[in-house]
Design brief:
Radius of gyration: 17 Å
Structural class: alpha+beta
Helix content: 25-40%
Oligomer: single chain
Order of helices and strands: HHEEEEE
CATH architecture: Roll
Shape: elongated
CATH topology: SH3 type barrels
């Protein structure tokens, strides 16, 4: 089953509220696992980059602190609290 088939089954299928809640829980769990995996990949002092959703600029900086879901990154422009899934190794 590919993504298009899954999307159409969710949008146009005859799923009950309980079934939809189950799908939502599964998606939340998968996102949480991806975030944990990304967070574990970074350590203090690592060089990372990210693109801001606000202005579209790409920032490069060093990891100052690794939190549960976010990473504190120090760039020449200041400190940024960035979601771990937005970071890439620079």
């Amino acid at each position: 089953m590919n993504v298009k088939e899954i999307n159409s089954a969710i949008m146009f299928g005859n799923l009950t509220n309980d079934q939809l809640s189950s799908v939502i829980d599964a998606v939340k769990f998968a996102r949480m696992q991806l975030t944990k995996q990304k967070t574990r990949a970074f350590g203090i002092g690592d060089r990372v980059k990210f693109t801001s959703n606000r202005n579209g600029l790409t920032y490069v900086g060093d990891v100052q602190k690794v939190k549960i879901k976010f990473v504190l990154v120090k760039t020449p422009g200041g400190l940024f609290n960035v979601p771990a899934n937005m970071l890439e190794v620079a």
